[in-house]
Amino acid sequence: DGGITQSPKYLFRKEGQNVTLSCEQNLNHDAMYWYRQDPGQGLRLIYYSQIVNDFQKGDIAEGYSVSREKKESFPLTVTSAQKNPTAFYLCASSNQYNEQFFGPGTRLTVL
Amino acid sequence: ILNVEQSPQSLHVQEGDSTNFTCSFPSSNFYALHWYRWETAKSPEALFVMTLNGDEKKKGRISATLNTKEGYSYLYIKGSQPEDSATYLCAFKDNQGGKLIFGQGTELSVKP
Questions:
Q1: Distances (CA, A) of A34 to A37, A93, A105
Q2: Which of A102, A106, A107 to mutate to test the interface with B (most CBs of B within 10 A)?
C-alpha cells in the first residue's frame, strides 16, 4: 500500500542530545514537509523540500536540520539547540494539487 | 505573518445534529484552501481542496463552501455521527509560492 511511514512512534531524549526522526514515503511525491504540533496550536512548518537535494526553512526551523538525499526519505534531526523540543511531529508529502498526505507522527519527549 | 483562524475551538453536539464551523484566511493572494480531518490516533486526511470563489464541495454528509473575496470557508456536517468526532483543520495557501498555513483546528465531539 502507498503511504507515509514515520518512526519511531514515541521517542525520549535527554537534554543535550540530538535525535533523528525518520520519514519515508512510497507515493512518488516530490514535495515533503515536517510539521510540529503543540497543544492548542495549529500545525507549524519546520522544513520542507520540493525536490531531492533541496530544502527550505519553514516558520520554526531554528534548532532543526533535515536532509533530502533520496526522493523517498526526509529525516528530521532535532538538535540540542532546539529550546523546547517536546512536541508531536508530523511528516507529510504532497501531490501536484498540494494535497498533503500525512504520516502517523512521532511524539518526542525530552527528559 | 499570514493568519488562519478557525472557530469555534471545540464543539460538542448530539448524534443527529447538524453543525458547521468556520475558517478565516487572508482575502488577498488566494491560491487554495484545504480542509483536513484528524481523528485521534490517526493521521490527518484530506477532505477538500478548494480553489475557486464560490466553490462548494461535498463528500457524503460533509460539505464545504468557499468565499475568497471575504476570506472565509464553512464546513458543514449534516446529521452528525459519533464517527465524525475529530479535529477539523483548514489550511490556506497563497499565490506567492508560499507554504500551507494551518489553522489551530476545531475539535468536534459527537455524543451518541
A1: 10, 9, 10
A2: A102
